[in-house]
Automatic annotation (TrEMBL):
Domain of life: Eukaryota
SUPFAM superfamilies for the chain: Ankyrin repeat
Keyword Repeat set for record: yes
GO CC list: nucleus
PANTHER family, per database record: ANK_REP_REGION DOMAIN-CONTAINING PROTEIN (PTHR24201), ANKYRIN-1-LIKE-RELATED (PTHR24201:SF16)
ANK repeats: 70-102, 103-135, 172-204, 205-237
The species this protein was found in: Spumella elongata
Record keywords, A-Z: ANK repeat, Repeat
Protein name as it appears in the record: Ankyrin repeat domain-containing protein
Amino acid sequence: INLPSDLIFLLSASSPMMSKDSTDTGKENRPIQENRVPSLLAGAREGDFNKVDRLVRLQGVPVDAQEYENTPTALMYAAVSGDVDVIAFLVGAGADVNKCDKDGRRPLTFAATNNRVAALQYLLENGADPNLRNRNGWTALYIAAAKGYVEVANALFAFQQSPSDVNVRNTVGGTPLIIASTLGHTALVALLLENHAAVDAVDNNNWTALLKASDKGHTDIVNLLLNNGADVNHTDNNDFAALLLAAKAGKADTVHALLAHSAVLVNRVDKSSRTALFYAAQNGHTEVVQALLSRSDVEIGIEDKNKQSARTITKCPEIVLLLENYKAN
């Protein structure tokens, strides 16, 4: 599937880098305590308690030392490995649980990204703020939704002292429900809805979770969203509704699920005056055409702005026959 750019950033950033940025001029990323800081970071990454203890307690390496300015700390590396003993030692030694690197990543978001539930719980209990964001506006809950990590999301919801914002929006307006629906994480969608996620929240392109799930053909999620009151006829900035998107993409099961909803407008048109039937016919999706023609109220003669209809646009003989038979009857 085509992933949003911010999701690509997330998936490529599960573990912090220890190397200097190739664009560094040496002014902003200055080596600090060159000999010992990398050893501390390596010890935290490897879960080597004795090494971390020795370097911090006996050799005096600052607990929040960074190899270069604005790069990950030992606590961030420990969150990646999930070693709670190392995390507890670092926190006890004064590590900043909310410190971030140049990308806005923090110990809690590293724990969430790597599905380290125990580490995440410890960090929450020791002052980590679950609603702080990375450079793309992602919180720990948003990351859990994107990755499909139900246990991480459950841990975040269970921590009532600092509730996670279930409807947090990232820099392009997406919410945890929208990203989970896009990527097909059914259990996560159910959990978010149970925790009062806004079912019809929209991103910057006016896409809802239902539009995303319909476009991708995640039928179980489509049914979940509809059962929780999603607007079946909501349209994006191009006037695409869920039925048009599913029909255009050839997602027959999803089309059936949407047609089962009594309120769906089967003849709704987008900005080009094209219907779900038009797109299904144009793209040769025979099963989708059959599903749409099962509706007695479907209109087969609607023309788009180029005066083309489902019948004139299709190049599929089977679909031509289906449309001719429907017209005759």
